[in-house]
Amino acid sequence: MPKLKTPCTVGSICKALETLAPAHLAEEWDNVGLLVGDAAKPVRKLMLTIDLTGRVLVEAARGRCEMVMAYHPIIFKPIGRCTAQATPIAYAAVRRDIAVYSMHTALDAAPGGTNDVLASAIGILNPQPLEPKPDEAQCKVVVFTPPSDLLAVSKAAFDAGAGRIGNYGECSFYTRGEGTFRGAPGSNPSVGKPGQLEHAQELRLELVAPKAKLRDVIKAIRKSHSYETPAIDVYPTEQLYGGLGTGRIGLLAKAMNLQTLIAHVKSVLGVPHVLSVGQRRRRLRRAACCAGSCGRIIGSALAQRADVYITGELRHHDAVDAAEKGLAVICVGHSNSERLTLRSLATRLRGMLPGLTVTLALNDRDPFEIL
């Protein structure tokens, strides 16, 4: 994975987080991205947490963290004011000059994100999305440049949003060839003279770009190109799924009964208690999971013939429905199903941003305690 340059800023960290979990993967009702802060501010220390509570914010301030990635957004809906009474956590973050970014459902749907981490911990082999979603609509942009323009043109295109494929940025391909052109009277070619047939060594540069950013990418290419009228081709591409989507499903590494699976889940997630639905001795092989509150996709688990469904929490009526339809369920607690992803995210960020110190909040915990 490409390493971003140091020193880090809020903006460069946002770019890394967006690379790992593009905002377009988030649910429509969600609010992901930079919620508080200045993109230009330098950052030496980033803290990861599921919930940004008052105690976690104090911990971040005492640890001199200039930025926090709070998985759950501290602002969900548009606000009319930012005051200590109306939005206490956001107000406190502003007062302490701590930037706040949220990944939430974008990280859930992304490859290597929350649900992949949960599925791996459970022992689900080759997990696939329960509800796949296509990646952002893309197109292929092809431009022909003299070799001397390659770096400037590709950088301009990358900065405008081109060249992202999954978890990788600045992706491109180029081949060498020879181009011909004859400038019309009044033209101003960078090579040769108007009216003469010219032969020039050129590179064919290919990049992918989101359709939503196509205008910006083409504008950036033209601005950075030395030709008066560069040749640019745009090709539509099919939308692919590529492991994107809500929840995960697959076969357990080995069949086991519900009681054994419960013990395994409690161990790998570090939780003392869970809620379960189903017969303890029933043999299970096909497992589905979804971090957080995921009752709405139980139908997808049933449709894909899952034997068991592991999630954070369910409504009472969803649990009743699952029991009636023979689907075993394990509920581990909302944030308990999500917290494991922070360790994985920390490791990935340290690789991308070697100049950044990444820590996990010690005061971050599920608000519920089973007595």
Descriptive overview:
It contains eleven helices and 15 strands. It has three domains: 10-107 and 340-360, 3-Layer(aba) Sandwich (Udp-n-acetylmuramoylalanyl-d-glutamate--2,6- Diaminopimelate Ligase, Chain: A, domain 1); 122-132 and 244-332, NIF3 (NGG1p interacting factor 3)-like (Udp-n-acetylmuramoylalanyl-d-glutamate--2,6- Diaminopimelate Ligase, Chain: A, domain 1), CATH 3.40.1390; 138-236, 2-Layer Sandwich (Alpha-Beta Plaits). The model is unreliable at 1-5 (pLDDT under 50). The chain is of the alpha/beta class. The chain has a six-stranded mixed β-sheet, sandwiched between helices. It has a five-stranded mixed β-sheet with strand order 1-4-3-2-15, with helices on both faces. It has helices spanning 10-20, 54-62, 88-95, 104-109, 114-122, 150-159, 214-224, 258-269, 298-303, 316-324, 341-352; strands at 33-36, 45-49, 67-70, 99-102, 124-132, 138-145, 173-182, 197-210, 232-236, 245-257, 275-277, 283-293, 308-313, 328-331, 357-360.
